[in-house]
Amino acid sequence: MKVIKIGGGCLKDGPAAGKIIKLISKRGEGDVFVLSAFYGVTNILIAGIQKALENEDTIPSVISKLKSLHHTIIKSLIDDGNKRKQLSKDLSKIFQELERYYYGISFTREATPRMKDMIATYGERISAVILSKSLSSMGKQSCCLLPEDAGIITDGKFMDASAIMSKTSKNLTAALDSIITPQKIVFIPGFYGISESGDITTFGRGGSDYSAAVVAASINAEVLEIWKDTQGFMTADPDNIPHCKLIPKLTYEEAAELSYTGAGILHPRTVEPVKKAGISIAIK
């Protein structure tokens, strides 16, 4: 079984997400996919917190912007009007929850770390639901497994949590064993887990890479694939040095060092769980 992480750069709009869906339908049966939010969504969610603190009248426009962005993507992915309508109905409940959190922040005039983490996870939750339902509409077997249901347990540190691997491995293995089949495609929202006291806690910005590594190590996956909108680690920044070359292979230590010094290909902590488990990372 592979664990495959799909970044927001590969989910920047409907056509891009459509290409990903086609790849998953051909290559993803029996595998687990850990997802980022659609491109730009996390920024909108976080900016919405500040807007809610300043003026509650801004909240409807934030929710409307998020709905419009996601519904545009859904139109590109699902042809059947009835299935689109049902998915929109399912998502409306999620948007209602999010709206209540924003109004709670506006009313209390306080955005606690707990509330910030809760709101920041909605992008990943929504992308996982949309991609799962899109594949189901194509006749594929797929489902969405939330980290809180999968038992991805963290140390409880808001905005910079770490997974407790022993407990997560036990929980996640049991959860996947009960649903996975050779034909099933499982989507798990990245970026967050749940503390032992029941709080949603995120792994920090870009933390979906780390989430995928935690999942891969927990279930002893054959490989962790990271699907990006770039080839992989390069000898320089390709935006500044067009003739730079791809680095075909790195040690765990080299990949970690490049990530910590700003390479931007992996979240700096991605290497930690898979190194201990001896699982390779492939950038695709």
Please sum up the structure shown.
With about 280 residues, the chain is of the alpha/beta class.
Describe this structure as you would to a colleague.
- The protein is an alpha/beta fold and 284 residues long.
- The protein has a single domain, classed as 3-Layer(aba) Sandwich (Carbamate kinase).
- The chain has helices at residues 14-27, 41-54, 59-77, 81-108, 113-120, 122-137, 147-150, 165-177, 208-218, 252-260, 271-277, and strands spanning 2-6, 32-35, 142-144, 153-154, 185-189, 192-195, 200-202, 223-227, 281-283.
- The chain is globular and about 50 Å long.
- The chain starts with a strand and ends with a strand.
- The mean pLDDT is 94.
